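Final report, Chapter 2: Outcomes

The project's central promise was a pipeline that accepts a single protein chain and returns its three-dimensional structure in a standardized token representation, suitable for archiving and comparison. That pipeline is now operational. To close this chapter, we reproduce one record exactly as it appears in the project archive, with the input sequence first and the structure output second.
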Amino acid sequence: MTIFPIEKIRADFPILKEKIRNKPLVYLDNAATCQKPQVVIDSISHLYTHEYANVHRGVHTLSIKSTDRYEGAREKVKDFINANSTKEIIFVRGATEAINLIASTYAKENIKHGDEILITAMEHHSNIVPWQMFCEQTGAVLKVAPINLQGELIYTEFEKLISDKTKLVSVVHMSNALGTINPVKKIIAAAKARNIPVLLDGAQAIPHMTVDVQELDCDFYAFSGHKLYAPSGIGVLYGKQALLDAMPPYQGGGDMIRKVTFEETEYNALPYKFEAGTPSIADVVGLGAAIDYLTEIGMDNIAAYEAELLEYATEKASKIEGLRIIGEAKDKGAILSFVLDKIHPHDIGTMLDSLGIAVRAGHHCAMPVMDFFEVPATARASFAMYNTKAEIDVLMDGIEQLIEVFG
């Protein structure tokens, strides 16, 4: 049994005191977005109340304070994922923009007609569609490694798809639809043996486990702040400095320039080369506050506690007749996707909401996964560090009631 300060943590999240339809909120939609602790909310309020101004180049006091908070958050991100330098930390709107940035810059410069990009069959649309668009524009080829009925990557098939034509491997670290945690170190090692760069979509993994980009040796790592208890509209692209230095800018405008004339423009140094225009200053500060909060709790402690929640929920769900779990990988994060006999997932979501329980119902931006399992959608309960076994009991009781109502 993990000793975990759950009551203290729950008290840090004001929204958890809300009632939905006169029932205590049971928030189990964390794979879509996490709720925010008071320290994150306060950090944003404090900035706007006392220190807000535009960042960089300002010589007045407020601009200096805002810049210090903004760049201080970049330092916190660097330490949180163990990047080598703050030059490797690019602030973007989220994991989706990070992947699109790579498709528009690195891929554009390095992947040509007939070259191949390798992904898996469990990807989020954000790691499928940008590559489809790129392939349509360039004549590159998108290859997809299959999964099995447990929702795991069939690694032997993945390995067979790596060839001299493979110019990029882009895979999800943890599946948002299945909870599967991919063997990313093994994937990266196989790609490195052929000098193939690897991009990891870490949007789901980053709130649930320690991520060390130097230990992984990935070339790029993308994640969103809003799934890391930080504000929405902010995310991070980590990239190895040598690769980022060689890449062209993603967008043009202010802050990404060093010198502009009508004849030519000289671009700024990293990381600013990829951060055109006024950034989401307050959201970056909020991200820094979220990282401080998580660091104090400890990511390994969070991972251990959430593993207990998943084990408990899986055991409970497996005893409900007519419930089928979608995604039963051996290595899995805190996600329980399921379907019920003769009850559409949207009805599951609506009925559970009447009991104050928030789950996600749909394809989870992973339509190919739904097609593979031959279901139109799933209901998904996704757990966070502030959830409890008592809330899982409420969920399971709600599912039992639902089954009884639908007969």
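Archive annotation: The chain has 15 helices and 17 strands.
This record, like all others produced under the grant, will remain available to the consortium after the project formally closes.
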